[in-house]
Design brief:
Chain B: Keywords: 2Fe-2S, Iron, Iron-sulfur, Metal-binding. The structure holds 2 protein chains of 2 kinds. Chain A is α/β, with parallel strands linked by helices. Chain A contains 17 helices and 8 strands. Chain A folds into 3 domains: 207 residues, Rossmann fold (3-Layer(aba) Sandwich); 83 residues, Ubiquitin-like (UB roll) (Roll); 95 residues, de novo design (two linked rop proteins) (Up-down Bundle), CATH 1.20.1440. Helix content of chain A is 44%, strand content 12%. In chain A, the strands form 2 sheets. A 4-stranded parallel β-sheet of chain A has the order 3-2-1-4, with helices on both faces. A 4-stranded mixed β-sheet of chain A has the order 6-5-8-7, covered by helices on one side. Chain B has 7 helices and 5 strands. Chain B has a 5-stranded mixed β-sheet with strand order 2-3-1-4-5, covered by helices on one side. Chain B is elongated, with a radius of gyration of 18 Å. Classes of the chains: A alpha/beta, B alpha+beta. Chains A and B meet through β5, β8 and α13 of A and α2, α4 and α5 of B. Bound molecules: flavin mononucleotide and iron/sulfur cluster.
């Protein structure tokens, strides 16, 4: 089980453990251990384990936690917060759903330990409303842990969200929790200085939090050794799209797409791999030449894409990449919070043009407009948050990787 | 029909729990929807008055969040995923068959008030694509096929 620390205890039907069942499997031992450790000792361990955040950006968890002020040292009054981000809406991502539904006590354990390390008085688990089975499972786990006195003085609750992808962006999430439209905020100040209600706040992804207890149980060396690369631990990879058996696969960090696609039963459709996104909808495409790249944040970034959520989307030789891109852009256009112009106005335009191309009504000038938009809007700082830049990644790489398909669609349009 | 005294009390309690009336606005909308299935103009105004916020603020919030319904919805809400993995696995055919059988488009409710059909962001059901989430308890169903749509609807949901 230790080579699958994250999912080894999950049941095939996803039925969550009761507290007694979880404890029989070694549950809450890591929490006991953390109780006798100083917050800095926990952070030291997490840093030594090389745990990178699994929510998309891959930021080192330990380093993030160090920004949190000790109790009584931040100006003003009020609690410090830990927010567990379970908004999961990135196209292609379905890992946090599983962790919430099948292993809720693992999330609570991670939250207790992380709250201790970050001096947080309150923890909030934000879960998207469509994940009601997950919401119910986590609420029950909290209830059981509280009754058993395992929470100590930590206040913890679930906050069901009310829809919209942008709520997952950490500053928009904070705005949403304060009861407003979920519009991102400027950083700095970073949430660790001024987050929820202006109080020090840490935001971590469900998978990141779920890994924390295992660092304490295994020790940082063994945790690191689970990985094939410099980035510690296992990763809950996912493979979907044109594969025979889409699914989740916990595997060493640094596992390759070739291995993962094989575990998913191979490419479906015509059986030929045309391209894949290595890290969810907002990651640039890779071709078959990247099948043997170790998939972690560092390697994927170096190869020109983004590891993001670590969820692969696979295109076979018969999938229409133009239509696929159009679908993605429709999503990002709709989910734009509307705050800044390039994103609010640019994405619907891009989506409309792609729809036209997919329908065989593309125009040469439109293709140039797409290329220009992808180049101009992609760099950080051109829009207020990473939604727009994220959307531009598949567009930019798709325009070059699928140039032939775009030309073919163009020719169809010119014939018509 | 105005909000019940019990619901109003819960909205006031939410204001205390969530750190003030503004922070409780979304919670109030959720409470109303939980009881009535959707949020009417009259109910929205009543909740705003109860919290002492402007109804335009409440409206701004309600119109932002996709799962706060500002129109009546059917007994069973079908949230059909329009994510890319579902698209790759035939979501468009399923969508067309659903529309055909129900006789409605996205954002609409069948005349008998049984079903509302909505398209939503990736549902985290890519391993069961094409997928949908149905009913009050948001049950995940999939992989769907055009041929399976009839059975899904007959299931009573
Ligand atoms: C548009 C957008 C949506 C995001 N959605 C999520 C999400 O659903 N879940 C998540 O954990 N992180 C999401 N993120 C990343 C968060 O902003 C943040 O980096 C993350 O929650 C931090 O957790 P980690 O350090 O454990 O990775 C999103 C980012 C952007 C720009
Ligand atoms: S980039 Fe898009 S989602 Fe982000 S703040 Fe601007 S409009 Fe909102």
């Amino acid at each position: 089980m230790t080579d699958l620390p994250l999912t080894g205890r999950a049941r095939p039907d996803r039925r969550p453990h009761t507290l007694a069942e979880w404890r029989a499997e070694g549950g809450y031992e890591a929490v006991e251990r953390a109780r006798n450790m100083a917050p800095t000792e926990i952070i030291d361990m997490v840093e030594a384990a090389h745990l990178n955040g699994r929510g998309g950006a891959g930021f080192p968890a330990g380093r993030k936690w160090r920004f949190m002020p000790e109790r009584g040292t931040s100006p003003g009054e009020g609690p410090s917060y830990l927010i567990v981000n379970g908004d999961e809406m990135e196209p292609g991502a379905f890992k946090d759903r599983f962790l919430l539904e099948a292993l809720p006590h693992q999330v609570i354990e991670g939250a207790i330990i992380t709250a201790r390390a970050t001096h947080a008085d309150e923890a909030i688990v934000l879960i998207r409303d469509e994940y009601r089975p997950g919401i119910a499972a986590v609420e029950r786990a909290i209830h059981e842990a509280r009754d058993a006195g395992l929470l100590g003085d930590l206040a913890i609750r679930v906050h069901p969200s009310a829809g919209r992808y942008i709520v997952g962006e950490e500053t928009a999430l904070i705005t949403a929790l304060e009861g407003h439209r979920a519009v991102p905020r400027k950083r700095p100040p970073f949430p660790a200085q001024s987050g929820l209600w202006g109080r020090p706040t840490t935001v971590n992804n469900v998978e990141t939090i779920s890994l924390v207890p295992h660092i304490l149980s295994l020790g940082p060396q063994r945790f690191r050794a689970l990985s094939r690369t410099e980035e510690g631990g296992t990763k809950l990879y996912g493979v979907s799209g044109r594969v025979q058996r889409p699914g989740l696969f916990e595997a060493p960090m640094g596992t390759t797409a070739r291995e993962l696609i094989e575990r998913a039963g191979g490419v479906s459709g015509d059986g030929r791999l045309r391209a894949f996104q290595p890290g969810g909808g907002a990651s640039g495409f890779f071709g078959p030449d990247r099948l043997d790249l170790p998939l972690d944040f560092g390697h994927v970034a170096k190869a020109g894409s983004m590891f993001g959520t670590g969820m692969l989307i696979v295109l076979d030789g018969t999938a229409c990449p133009v239509g696929f891109l159009a679908r993605h852009m429709r999503f990002y256009a709709r989910e734009s919070c509307g705050w800044c112009t390039p994103c609010r106005e640019g994405l619907p335009l891009v989506a409309k043009i792609l729809d036209r191309f997919a329908a065989g009504q593309g125009r040469r000038a439109d293709l140039e407009l797409l290329q220009m938009t992808a180049a101009e809007a992609a760099p950080r700082g051109r829009s207020f948050c990473d939604l727009m830049g994220g959307a531009m990644a598949p567009l930019a790489s798709g325009l070059s990787m699928f140039a032939a398909e775009f030309e073919a669609r163009l020719a169809e349009g010119e014939r018509a | 029909m105005s909000l019940s005294p019990d619901l109003l009390a819960r909205i006031r309690a939410a204001s205390d729990e969530h750190g003030g009336p503004r922070a409780a606005m979304l919670e109030a909308l959720k409470l109303i929807q939980h009881e009535h299935g959707w949020v009417s103009d009259a109910h929205l105004a009543e909740a705003a008055a109860t919290l002492g916020v402007h109804r335009a603020e409440m409206e701004a919030l309600a119109s932002f969040y996709s799962l706060i319904f500002r129109h009546p919805v059917g007994k069973t809400v079908i949230l059909l995923c329009d994510g890319a993995s579902c698209w790759l696995n035939g979501a468009e055919e399923v969508r067309e068959e659903l529309k055909r059988r129900l006789g409605i488009g996205f954002g609409e409710t069948t005349r008998d008030g049984r079903y509302t059909l909505l398209n939503v962001a990736c549902l985290g059901g890519c391993d069961r694509a094409p997928a949908a989430v149905v009913g009050r308890d948001r049950r995940l169903v999939g992989p769907l096929s055009p041929a399976g749509v009839a059975a899904l609807l007959e299931d009573g949901l």
